[in-house]
Amino acid sequence: MQKIKMKSNRRSFLKKSVATGVGIGLIQPFQSFGMGRVQNTVKKVGMIGLDTGHSPAFVKSLNTAMSGEFGNYKVVAAYPRGTENILAWKNRIPEFTAEVKKHGVEIVDSISALVDQVDYVILTTIDGNKHLEQVLPVFEAGLPVFIDKPFAGSIEDARKIAKAAKESGTPMFSSSSLRFLNGAEEIRNGSIGQINGVDAYSPAHIEEHHPDLFWYGVHGVEILFTLMGTGCKWVERTYTEDTDLVVGMWNDNRVGTFRGIRKGKGGYGGLVYAEDGIQMLNEFDGYNGLLHEIVKFFDTKNPPVSIAETLEIFTFMEAAERSKNGNGKRIFLESV
User: Fold this and answer.
1) Stretch (H or E) spanning 135
2) Which band of pLDDT confidence, cut at 50, 70 and 90, is reported for residue 15?
């Protein structure tokens, strides 16, 4: 059981975390959530952050699933507080809290209380700048955790989260739901031969508290890396008020691009150039593909996306930010 970890390891991890300036409250005793008529076979999931539409959507899918579609994983408790700075979403916390309560979710007043009564965690706080602070108590408790997009609000925080997960021995992964576009896995695995290049696209709205692509462009960049894999060497970014175009060169001389859309009709997808064909991917069936991967991860503790790939995605986006600030200058990822 993941909860039963060596306390000494966690205490050592806590000391290192505090040394970085991130405080963690001590876990407090908390009475177990009464499941009522729900059977003991329910696998208890906690949710952190009710400031995004992903939260009620995930809860509804998990808590109303029939025939064991999601392995009887249910969200039983949630800590609602998320962003402090993005007011448009902070102001929706009461609305989303009311929605999840309709599905039998107990609202708790601290992350410490949450981790004491669940076995798995989904962190959905919309503000990536809160993720390091909020996930550290989860790592201390040793609970497998999925971190929703954006993984972090800075490349520094992304690396700290990855390091803390490794030091605490806690299973963790992060991904955009767009990684699971219909057909993407089959193409990555060679259904149309070796992939020579990809032109990915998505909306790329900008939010002042995040580097540009971290906020929304991450969806399209995730599509790009889903298909191209890791190994990007450098990026160059062309930026206008309405559009981003980021060109990436991979180590094997393959070229991948990301187009960020801020004007006109948006959408998500990619055009794949491969040895045996050229194929468009743009069919997205919602969050259930991601949720299936999350519960599989909870079962196996094996992440469907490596932390190395997630960190390269964020390094790519940070390099694109620096390229923009350098008027389109070529930025090598190794320099980030």
Assistant:
1) helix 131-141
2) very low
Q: What does the angle CA 89 – CA 92 – CA 96 come to, to the nearest 5 degrees? A: 120
Residue 305, sorted as left (phi over 0), alpha (psi -120 to 50) or beta, turns out to be beta
What are the CA-CA distances from residue 58 to residues 62, 64, 148 (Å)?
6, 10, 11
Q: What does the pLDDT look like over 235-277, one tens digit per residue?
A: 999 999 999 999 999 999 999 999 999 999 999 999 999 999 9
CA distances from 8 to 12, 14, 113, 209 (A): 6, 10, 21, 36
Decide if 143 contacts 171 (C-beta within 8 A). Answer: no
b/e per residue 171-185 (b: at least 16 CB within 10 A): bbbbbbbbbbbeebe
First to last CA, the chain: 38
Give φ, ψ of 193 to 5 degrees: 85, -175
Residue 8's pLDDT band (boundaries 50, 70, 90)? very low
252-265 CB burial, b ≥16 within 10 A, e <16 = eebebbbbbbbeee
Q: Tokens representing 183?
A: 């057909």
Closest CA to 163 of 307, 319, 316, 328: 307
Q: Using alpha carbons only, what angle is made at residue 249 by residues 246 and 253, rounded to the nearest 5 degrees? A: 150
Question: By CB neighbour count within 10 A (0-12 exposed, 13-18 middle, 19+ buried), where does 334 fall?
Answer: exposed
7 or 154: which leads in pLDDT? 154
Percent of the chain exceeding pLDDT 90 equals 85
What pTM does this model have? 0.87
Q: Is the dihedral of CA 80, 64, 138, 214 positive or negative?
A: negative
> Dihedral angle at the C-alpha atoms of 170, 174, 177, 179, nearest 10 degrees?
-110
Cβ atoms within 10 Å of 103's Cβ, excluding its own: 16
Spell out where the chain has E strands: 43-48, 73-79, 106-107, 120-123, 145-147, 172-174, 195-203, 232-239, 243-250, 255-261, 269-274, 277-281, 331-332
How many Å separate Cα 41 from the centre of its chain? 27
Q: What span, in angstroms and rounded, lies between the C-alpha atoms of 250 and 30?
A: 50
